[in-house]
Amino acid sequence: MAQTSIITGQYVCIHQTAANIVQRLAAWLIDMIFLYIAGIFVTVGMMPIIFSLGQETIAVTISVIIFLALMSYPLFMEVFNHGQSIGKYLVGIRVVALDGSTPTLGAYLLRWLLLLIDWGLMGVGLAFIVFTKNSQRLGDLAAGTTVVKLSKSTRSINAYDLYFTDSHYTPTYPEAASLSLRQFNVIARTLYYTYNETRSQNIVRLAEKTEQVLGVKNNTLNAETFLRTVYNDFQYYASRVI
């Protein structure tokens, strides 16, 4: 299975498994089934209203609105569901930016606009997924995104990791407040969302880089503990911004 190497903003290489063609087709098929069923229910539900209007122009307008709403499903789901449509969620894959962060709204929009070409023009999207390094279709190449397989060993952030939620929490590194959201996302992904054979090495390298960026000294004996502390300190200050 293809591996996609994500170079983060901290120059740490995170290896993730790119979703293969079977997984992406399975997610697409599930989405199409969902849209087909949703389309039937919406159409049946709207029929009495359309017929009661008795004007062909209005009926066509409503039909076009319904069609556009269904076509916009992939865009809205990925934007508001962290890069996952229903199909992607069930298959266990998601859209990410090439640096491992969450794609921007513009990136989601661009890959959605090219969806018709990818899936409609003689399956050109399938060819690009098979032959490109990071398994990217045209929309992914244009938007700087890819689709990765979520590891079963990936765990959620546990409540006991979120020390900043304690009202008596005292930050260790005030400098953590200066981190950008992208830099914070790199720390969060490395700690909580990336589990492979290089995880320990990535954490050590990221801890060293974080020390340099913040201009602080790791006063713990463990790189992971240091990053968790920076993570909580950033969240502490971010949660208090009015």
Question: Keyphrases for this structure?
Answer:
mainly alpha; two-stranded antiparallel sheet; 56% helix; 8% strand
How would you characterize the overall build of this protein?
It is a single chain. This protein has eleven helices and four strands, in the order E-E-H-H-H-H-E-H-H-H-H-E-H-H-H. With about 240 residues, it is mainly α. The strands form two sheets. A two-stranded antiparallel sheet has the order 1-2. Helix 1 runs antiparallel to helix 2 (about 55-70) and helix 9 (about 180-190) packs across helix 11. It is elongated and about 75 Å long. The model is unreliable at about 5-15 and about 155-160 (pLDDT under 50).
Give helix % range: 55-70%
Point out poorly predicted stretches: 5-14, 153-160
Basic shape: elongated
The proportion of residues in beta strands is 5-15%
| Backbone structural class | mainly alpha
Number of helices: 11
Distance between the terminal alpha carbons, to the nearest Å? 46 Å
Task: Tell how many strands the DSSP assignment holds.
Answer: 4
The rounded Rg comes to 22 Å
Query: What kind of sheet is the major sheet?
Result: 2 strands, antiparallel
- Give the SSE string: EEHHHHEHHHHEHHH
Strand order of the largest sheet: 1-2
Mean model confidence by pLDDT: 78
Concise summary:
With about 240 residues, this protein is mostly helical.
Provide the fold topology.
Blueprint: E1 3-7, E2 13-17, H1 21-53, H2 56-71, H3 73-80, H4 86-91, E3 93-97, H5 105-113, H6 115-120, H7 124-131, H8 138-143, E4 145-149, H9 181-192, H10 199-214, H11 223-238
Antiparallel strand pairs: 1-2, 3-4
Helix pairs in contact: 1-2, 3-5, 9-11, 10-11
